[in-house]
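Re: your question from the hallway

Yes, I did run it. Sequences:
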Amino acid sequence: MDRQATIATLAATCTRLRRDILEMITHAGSGHPGGSLSAVDLIETLYSKHLRQGAQRANDPARDRFVLSKGHGVPALYAVLAHHGYFSRDLLPTLRKLGSPLQGHPVVGTVPGIEACTGSLGQGLSVAVGMALGARLDGNGARIWCMMGDGEIQEGQVWEAMMSASKYRLDNLVAIVDSNKAQIDGLVKDVMPLESIEEKARSFGWLTTRIDGHHYGHILDAYEWAEKPEGAPKLIVADTIKGKGVSFMESELVKWHGVATNKEQLEKALAELDPEVLGS
Amino acid sequence: MSEQKAVASKPKASRQAFGEVLAELGAKHTDLVVLDADLAKSTKSELFAKKFPERFFEMGIAEQNMVGVAAGLGLAGKNAFCCSFACFVAGRFETIKISVAYSGGNVKIVGTHAGVGIGPDGYSQMGLEDLALMRTLPTMEVYQPADELETRQIVEYLATHRGAAYLRLTRQDLTPVHGPGYEFAPGKLDVLAEGKDVAILATGGPTFHAVDARKQLAAAGIDAAVINVPSIKPFDREGIAAWAKKVPLFVSVEDHNVLGGMGGAVAEVLAEVAGARARLHRHGIPDVFGESGEPEDLYRKFKLDADGIVAVVRERLGR
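Structure:
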């Protein structure tokens, strides 16, 4: 598939995934739409083009792994995993319901493709560092990807993990910050300013790049860069928009962190998310 | 585990025994990896580090990251031993809860320098809450050996065990309470001596003092059973229930807060045993902070040495 066709396919797929995410959360009556919509382009591009894994290899010890450290964004991951055949799409409406494998935050062993329990923010990068060390010991060539939220990196453990990844020169480790600029209590810059994330990471020994996290060309280029081993862990800061694709969410970033859409709002959102239009 | 080791009959700290056996097991168990947080000389994980440097990870003074990295190594198929003082490693409870226990990680949390037995460093370095914390995590197994032989056998067990476990070890030397034929069994009480007037249930550092206390109690006409409790979780409910029908009094003895530790586990079972005769006296650190002092002076102050245990038992029996 040429690059233009790849990008067109990603755009169409991600629009469908956005619809899945909002339908799941509306049905659940709770969840985190904003951060799921900001992350989904990054996650789908990873699974469709770069993660050496696949539903048939979900338990292969030598697989690439993706750790969603910002566990509240898991509706995006569930939608992507179902799309790629890790489990049936019929499960999607069971999100957050009693007895469902689709827990409110990721849990190992519930459905194939979930690599770590996350949701208590700040823990996933450490786990990814351990997986990267394990892959190196086994010499299996696996690459470990970890996505964090920008608010999440206020957690001190993230910076401990950054130090350790740098010490061990983990060039099989890639961190992605889904920088959607908002967290529960307000804008990140007001709650606890972080910028410059890249300068901080570079001073911790990481190689960095910054991209538009909704621009498929940028994402593809960044992932290609990230896969080149250069003796250090790599960080992609992806500028994203919380609630991307739904105008009434994009205009109220903070509000839509952890509030479910009702049926009426869902209809309004779905009207803006026509895969045929965006995919063309 | 049935393999009998020639064990010297002289006292040894359980952290030392741990370090030695881990370094031995590293050759056979190539999935073993060890992490430490700038205390490898103290936890004795340095013995493994010297033999297997490629499988040892010095994580610096950053325990919560160490715990998370251990979890990742476990999820990547390794058996990760993650070592620090009991105080510091158990202090990263929420990382242990989510990244280790909930994720089903193959991680062994090793907390050394447990209890007031650390001595002069004082309360900020004393793990006195760790058993209570670790017991509340589903899937987490919790072990505390009483001497060198038992430490060896528990570490051998953990080297092949898949899943999460907490191992609590001492800074101070422990006088052996086991002969060479001893066999550790997870989830079982270890009866060191029978008795009918009282059962002293001891774990970890004070266990050999309980054995000494039995001799003094015998001289005073009191027939005390001494039961070692190496397996805090899984916990021997049937064993406790059976003993609760045999003796009128349990005295639990531990270098840990009396709240939530081994004595707490005994209390939980005892309250549910139909037809129990035994009352329980929980003896340990009585919900106060520790303090600086020589370990033996602290054991005397908190009545965890033989004289102290004798005094507690006699007072409770009124004899």
